[in-house]
Amino acid sequence: MSTPHVVVVMGVAGTGKTTIGPLLAAELGVPYAEGDDFHPAANIAKMSAGIPLDDADRWPWLDAIGRWAHGRAGLGGVVSSSALKRVYRDRLRAEAPGAVFLHLTGDRALIEARMAQRKGHFMPTTLLDSQFATLEPLQADEAGVPVDVSGSPEEITQRAVAALRRLDD
Question: pLDDT tens-digit profile of 29-49?
Answer without folding.
Answer: 999 999 989 999 999 888 888
